[in-house]
Each structure stands twice: as structure tokens, then as C-alpha cells.
Amino acid sequence: MANHPVDEKLERSAEHAKEAAAQTQEAAEHTQAAAKTTAQATVQLKDSADRRTELAANRTVFAAERTYAAWVRTGLASLASGIGAKKLLEGVVPDWMIISTGSILVLFSAFCFAAAVWRQLFQGAQPPQPDVPRIPPFLFVLFNGFLALVALAALISIWFGRTGGD
């Protein structure tokens, strides 16, 4: 009989050990599932952050193009104003004032055309690679070079063309 209580204790200890092992196994499975979920969430966060970075790069490209367009628009308005000043001011102000006003406006337009290309080609720190294609740089140089030649022709016309006093 002395052995009987010891055997019962051993059996209970074995049962407790089995229950503890089952609980440990269950906890390990839960931990493994949680780790897998966390790993998936980390990948999704990384993918989400990468995508946000790409979208920010796209917005940067579009902002640079809007800035370029603003420079060209300002240059065209200044060119038109310089050419129009000659006709608008003739007979109202002296010829030297017509020539100087027109010249300053046309020179400013040439500056705007050059600044537009400069700002587009030399943007500083490059953003991450965007999804959207960029306009080829040679097109900026080509078109704005042509506009600068038009501004030069307008300047020559203002300087050597007829004014209202002639």
C-alpha cells in the first residue's frame, strides 16, 4: 500500500506533465501563427511605404512639369507684352521709352525660357524612380531654344523696326 500513493502521485504528475505539454504545444502554435501574421503585416507595411514613396516621386515629376509650364507661360506673356508694347505705346510715350520697355520685357521672356530649362534639368536631389515617364530633356532644350530665338528676333525688331515717331 505504501507504493500505491506514490504510484498515484506519479500518475498525477504524468497527467499534469501531459497537460502542460499540450498547453505548451498550443501556446507554441499560437505564437507561430502570430509571428506569421506579424511577418505578413510587416511585408504589407513595407510594400505600402514603398508605394507611397513611388507616388511621392510621381507627384514630384508632375510638380516639376507644372513649374516648367509656369516659366514658359510667363515667358510667352512677357514676349507678347514686349512686342505689344511697341504698338500700344507708339504716339503716347517717346521712342526711347518704347524701345526700353519692349526690350526689357523681351529680355525677361528669354530669361524665363532659359530658367525653365535650367529648373527642369537641374532639380537638385533626385527623387526615387517614379512610375511616370519623364519628358526627354532634349525636347526642353529644343523648344525653349526656339522660343529664345523668337525672343531674339522680337528684340531685333524692337530695336531696328519702325516706331510710331518715324
Q: What would you note in describing this structure?
A:
It is a single chain. The chain is an all-alpha fold. The protein has a domain at 60-160. 83% of the residues lie in helices and 0% in strands. It contains three helices and no strands. The chain has helices spanning 3-89, 95-121, 137-160. The protein is rod-shaped. The model has no long low-confidence stretch (mean pLDDT 83).
Write the layout of secondary structure elements.
Elements: H1 3-89, H2 95-121, H3 137-160
Class by alpha and beta content: mainly alpha
Continuous helix count: 3
Average pLDDT, rounded to a whole number, is 83
Summarize the amount of helix as a percent range: over 70%
Question: What's the end-to-end separation, in Å?
Answer: 139 Å
The low-pLDDT segments are none
Outline, from the CA principal axes? Answer: rod-shaped
Strand content: under 5%
Q: What is the H/E string?
A: HHH
Q: Describe the sheet with the most strands.
A: none
How many beta-strand elements?
0
Cα-based radius of gyration, to the nearest Å: 38 Å
Subcellular location: Endomembrane system
Pfam families: DUF202
Domain DUF202: 59-119
Transmembrane segments: 96-118, 138-160
Gist of the model:
The protein is mainly α and 166 residues long.
Task: Supply database-style keywords.
rod-shaped, single chain, 3 helices, DUF202 domain-containing protein, mainly alpha, 166 residues
